[in-house]
Amino acid sequence: MKTFKIENNINEVPKAVDFLRSELAKKKIPKKNILRTLLTAEDVITKMVENSTEKIKISVGVFLGNTEIRMSAKGTPFKSSKIEEKLLFKEESSDDIEANEAIRNMISKILGDKLAIRNDKGVNKVLIEVAKSQFRQLFFIIFALAAGIACGLAMQHFFPKTVSNTILANLFIPVYAMFMNTLKLIVAPRLFCSIASSIADFGDLKALGKLAVKIVICYLVTSLIAICIGLASYTAFPIGNTELVNAVTSSTVSTIAKSASDSISIKDTILGIVPTNIITPFENSEMLQLVFLAILFGLATSSISETYPMIKSIISALYALCSKITTVLVSFIPIVVFCSMAKMMISLDISNLLNVIVWVPVIYFGDILMIIAYMLFLFIVGGLNPLKFLGKFYPAMVSAFTFASSNASLPYSIKQADELGISKKVYSFSLPLGATVNMDGSCITLIITALFMAKIFSIPITSSILFSLFVAIMVLSVGSPGVSGGNLVCIALIIPQIGVPAEAVSLVLGLYPIVEMMQVCANVTGDAVVSTIVAKHENLLDLKKYNS
Questions:
Q1: Which residue, among 352, 335, 339, 338, has the nearest Cα to 168 in the 3D structure?
Q2: DSSP letter string over 135-161?
Q3: Cβ neighbourhood burial of 279 (10 Å; 0-12, 13-18, 19+)
Q4: Given CA atoms 190, 44, 200, 404 in this order, what sign does their dihedral have?
Q5: Residue 218 phi/psi, 5° resolution?
Q6: Euclidean distance between CA atoms 31 and 376, whole angstroms
Q7: Of 226, 241, 238, nearest to 366 (Cα)?
Q8: Each residue's pLDDT tens digit in the chain (548 positions)?
């Protein structure tokens, strides 16, 4: 790790920027990443000079595959305010002030994990994530998947049964149980805070104008289409083997039996959306009731945000807290995958593993159909050549597939949107919003996974259950985290709604990163298609540039 120190003087800032430029270039960071990082770093260093009382220590290094910049110096607390402005359009008329504030809040959430500023015992400490290893988490998970399968098979065939059961009971099951308990702990507050915070930021769509209304409506339409495509994909390939139920836990049998015996009508489902108190939805993870509360709190917060801005800040802070917990939880997935796969292989054989693996191609099939639907949507509704779109936007699609994160792919989507000729006034709003609330690929994953689990646990899918799934998935597409692995939270939340225990997530935990790559590719493509169509209808698309 290379370290550099500058005096507490504003004239020293260019020296620090030159040092960072040189070090990042040595580490072969792409030029566009260097430029974006330097804009952020310059703002932060300037703030540190203004708020520090000694020399500022700056270092550049690689930690677990990630390239990071760290800064520290004694001084008073501060925060950076210019970072999110880089993505905003510059017109600051009176009609745009509230719109820009809403977009700024959303982008700040998305960039939250890239920049961390804190004051620890009088010392300002800054962390800027420059480049994230594209394959680190995926490599760890695939390695853990293979190691878990090998370990489970070895224990099944070569270890005495008493030894295998002891290791299973005292190591694999406790680790897996702790992960699932933490997952269940965070799903309800994560969903509530995500939706409430989004509505609080965008509660007054009039401030954003008809442009925003069209974008939101298009996102809702594509989400509905995605759920239908997911349902059609599962109907074409009805995967699910009841023998896989043995890989979860025997303690879930009573839960499944109870759920299967319950008969809830569509009328009861609608009436059940409104809770009788504020605590029960969080205790029981009643998703539709949580959504109702989140919408209620979000709209109320938006209406009084000018009088009581602190309430909006509290909800945003809780959202950031839940997002951080989710990110930390996801980082432990490789360990849990190892324990989960070893546990599964001790009780199952290799043929049953194949019954789980078929889940992956079915979801890929649905995502590919969705991308084809986007192209038809672009041609029929937008009157545009889909091949021109693919020819210009495919780099962002590849990046999304590689990063497996809508948030991480946002800078690439913005760059290619500009290449398509979309006005910055459109994409500076639509793409960050899409990275937050438009998760069509996630909708496909959720509907296929829910039906897959229902078949494994022999739960009949009635019209009321299907209706509940459609409503729940539509709303969860808003609350789905944009970070890698974050959609596991949504799976753990939705499957109990049809009577499947949340522990069933273990069946697909190890394979999920493979699914997520194609899922995010579909998400990002949908954001760009909607942006292109809305820009065309608002005369904000440079057709000459699009067709060039």
A1: 339
A2: SHHHHHHHHHHHHHHHHHHHHHHHS-H
A3: exposed
A4: negative
A5: -60, -40
A6: 35
A7: 226
A8: 778 888 888 888 899 989 998 888 888 887 777 887 888 888 888 888 888 888 899 998 877 667 888 999 888 887 655 444 444 444 444 445 555 555 555 555 554 557 778 888 888 888 888 876 656 666 777 788 888 888 888 888 888 888 888 888 888 878 877 877 777 777 778 778 877 876 776 655 554 567 777 888 898 899 999 999 999 999 999 998 887 877 665 444 444 444 434 444 556 656 777 888 888 888 776 766 877 888 788 888 888 877 888 888 888 888 888 877 877 777 787 888 788 778 777 766 666 778 888 999 999 999 999 999 999 999 999 899 999 999 889 888 887 886 676 766 777 788 888 889 998 878 877 887 777 678 898 899 999 999 999 998 888 888 888 888 888 888 777 656 555 566 777 787 788 878 888 778 878 877 887 888 899 899 999 999 999 999 998 888 889 989 88
Closest CA to 130 of 58, 57, 197: 58
Tokens 């500023």: give the residue: 117
Residue 44: CA atoms inside 13 Å, Cβ hemisphere, count? 29
Q: Residue 61 — φ and ψ, nearest 5°?
A: -160, 175
CB atoms < 10 A from the CB of 258, how many? 10
